[in-house]
Amino acid sequence: MLDDLDLSSIPDDRTRELIIRLLNIIETVTADLRAAQTENQRLRDEINRLKGEQGQPPIKTNTPPPPPDHSSEHQRHRPSERVKRGKRDRIALDRTQDLVVDPAILPPDAEFKGYDEVVVQDVVIRTDNVVFRKEKWYAPSTGQIYLAPLPAGYQGEYGPGVRALTLVFYFACQMTEPKIADLFAQVGIAVSDGQISNLLIKDQDPFHAEKDAVYAAGLRASPWQHLDDTATRVGGQNQHCQVVTNPLHTIHHHGGQGPFDDPGRAAERRTAHLPPQ
For residue 99, what pLDDT is reported? Predict the structure, then answer.
């Protein structure tokens, strides 16, 4: 209604300012009125519900039609070639234990007829804390000390099992860092919330490289990108979470720099994902 309103045609500055203020007030009042109408309808629906009646029914948006089936008639009616496998075929067996019948309960004419097999699945979570005694040698000729290296996969205070489970619990199971620390504490692993965070974000160069590859592929997947940012705190400091997204790709960058500048990764946490194909 006001699209053709040209306030610049009003010669008097005070009059033009007054009209602008009135229009702003009208806009605010209109927004409040719409909010009040929505709240009023909600209260009416609640009153009707308490009376045993029904409120205004929700109107759902139109559902897009399913995509057409481009498979051939022969493919749609062809018998399935998939062979159903038993559950035991999908279970990797770790050990076999023979169970015996108490001889005291067997009658004299009892005959052995083999075994009945029962597969039972179980999992054991236990500590594997180890003291590595590294040989230490000293050579007077070189003035150097020679130490035996740790086995492959071991570095710092935590072994590969703790490191792998931390990643699985956090990213696959959506567990929080304090809950991961609590679970480890229950089985005898002493680890703090801060150390859990370090295991997730430090010395993860392969993950950073994969994330950068996903980011580059996402940029190539669409002719346009949407950028946004929001305030966030990293290590007790006020910074920004920057977002780059398109219909096929979303990347979040936490830190003081943008996604195009990456001087320090030690204190950052970066995630990216592509939707399943």
Answer: 93
